[in-house]
Amino acid sequence: MTELTESKEISNLWPEVIKDFDIESFKQEVLSKQSFEEQIEVFDKSFNLFRNYYLCVTKADRKVLFSIYCGCSGCREKGERYSSEKEQIFNQFRARKYVALQKELDAIPNFVERVYHGYKYFGEGSGPYSYVPYEDAPEEFRASTLPKNGQEKEVWNIHVVDNLNETYFYNEDSSYYKKSYNYLARQINNQLRFAIYPQEVLAREIERIRQTYERPDLNIDAVSGLKGISTHERVGVEEFRNLVSGKPFDIFNGFSSLTFALVRLEQCQIVQYLRYLEEVRKYLSNTGTLPNSIMNNPLPPAYDPIITKTIRTLSRGYTSKSDYNLIDDQVKELSKEQAYTFLSRIAEGLKYVLTEHIKNCQHPPGQCTHQQAIERAHNSIANRLLDFIPVEPEAKATDSSGILSGLNNSQTVLLIYYTLKLFGLEPRKNMDVSQAAKVAHLLTGKELTTVNNSDLYQKFKQVPNFKQDKGLIEDLEIVKLRFKKAQLNEAVKMIDNEIETAKMERLNKQ
Fold it and tell me: How many C-beta atoms lie closer than 10 Å to residue 381's C-beta?
């Protein structure tokens, strides 16, 4: 391929035409058109005219390979490739494109998605912006992704803060990671678990934080609400209080650089950590013991951002083995009950993302690769959950090795109920309830005195709706994992339908 036909070196081609673009064929097509507007239309098929203020084929080094119009000051002065008539026609053409694009943008209800849609035409990283087809263009010809109200402004602020936190404070490869609340809380918890004098450990850490971060532009007591209010030259305490409490700071005003934004976010992480230390110290002082979140089973709040980041990573449409290795490494740090909570929240988050994706997906059913990737991620987490399912203190079956192992009576009845349905049998419809209960006693080994006294029988009389919605959903999720492990997908589908019904009933009651 010659220098002139090396399309990868040509600027501003649409991505989909780069591979097959040939400049000689393109020139012939352009020059074959009779009118200037027809020539513009040929350019429009191959080049992004939202970003081009000229009709030229140029290389990355700005060498012009072919041109029919340029409105730069040099060409205007020389009279080359420029005329006022061409300028007017080109401006009108671009204005029509901008008006059409604005209609596309207005049809996108999600503000963040609207901004990213603008990136497709004007390049990434510019944020919400108002784009003009030509200098001094009237307002009606502009394409804008600027927020239309305070709510959209807040949505974008949250999005930017989330991205900054994920990139710098939740990313283990970042130099900011060890300054994050997540990292610091995990480190101090590990120290406190084995400390002989935990009060002294807390006192030293609180003093270290204060000495490190207390300075003229950050009065920790003021912004954390521990003492009175002070002011700051660039960002008022009230604004910073909002940021610390989880409300977004104003990206559009006051944060002129990435460095300054990261300083504020670091301070937020530290104030959150300091509050945590003060809460632990107060609890220790009042009770003489450390909180359960440190010593026992509940999952510490420091894992919340890890769960959020993991859900985002697994739902992006592509994953690698290293992504799952990170999850497995986190699980190794946790007790069995903590690991179950950790994985359950990830699985629930992925299921929500999948549901929302299906609602908005434009692909025919079963043909969206992104959807399939999310489903695979969800199934992978669900399979990991099988190793950490907690056992409830309800009467358990005596079977210790089979499929009913570790299930309480409610879960046992559900498992047998859906197994029978696989064979076309359903208690209360085409199978006697007492017979179903006797089958359950046979499989569990539980003694049967009379059918009416059997807890299993009473549950079969109402199955699957013998519990309130939340309890039923929890039992269904546990039973579903057993069917999934056995690859009985038809039963999994039936249980998923019942879970969705239970969730809707629960919402209707609220």
Answer: 24
CB-CB contact of 22 with 7 (8 Å): yes
Which candidate, 243, 236, 245, places its Cα nearest to that of 264? 243
Q: Which residue has the higher pLDDT, 319 or 187?
A: 187
In this model, does residue 223 exceed pLDDT 70? no
Helices (H), 194-318: 198-213, 220-223, 237-244, 258-287, 292-295, 304-314
Whether 69 contacts 55, CB under 8 Å:
yes
In 133-159, which positions are buried (b, 16+ CB within 10 angstroms) versus exposed (e)? bbeeeeeebbbbbbbeeeebbbbbbbb
Cα 323 to chain centroid, rounded = 15
CA Rg value for the chain: 31
Average pLDDT over residues 323-339: 85
36-46 and 23-31 helices cross at what angle (nearest 10)? 160
What DSSP element (H or E) covers 471? helix 469-485
Please give the C-alpha separations between residue 162 and each of 40, 45, 48, 182, 336, in angstroms, as whole numbers: 41, 37, 31, 14, 30
Residue 22, amino acid: D
Residue 10 CA to its chain's centroid (Å): 35
Mean pLDDT across 352-362: 81
Predicted model pTM: 0.48
Band of residue 397 on the pLDDT scale cut at 50, 70, 90: very low
- Is residue 469 over pLDDT 70? no
Cβ contact 342:331 at 8 Å: yes
Q: Residue 9 gets which letter from DSSP?
A: G
Q: Are 228 and 219 in contact (CB under 8 A)?
A: no
CA distance 484 to 418: 12
Average pLDDT over residues 226-240: 35
Query: Could you give the CA distance from residue 466 to residue 393 in angstroms, rounded to a whole number?
Result: 18
φ, ψ for residue 431, nearest 5 deg: -145, 135
Q: How confident is the model at residue 30 (pLDDT cuts 50, 70, 90)?
A: very high
Segments of 359-459 assigned E as strands: none
Indicate if the alpha-carbon torsion angle 363, 366, 367, 371 is positive or negative.
positive
Q: What DSSP letter does each residue of 11-67 carry, written as one string?
A: TTB-GGGTTT--HHHHHHHHHT-SSHHHHHHHHHHHB-TTT-SEEEEEBTT--EEEE
- Mean pLDDT, range 432-455, rounded to an integer: 83
Q: Mind listing the pLDDT tens digit for each residue in 358-385?
A: 877 877 877 888 888 888 888 888 888 8
User: Is 351:382 a contact under the CB 8 Å cutoff?
Assistant: no
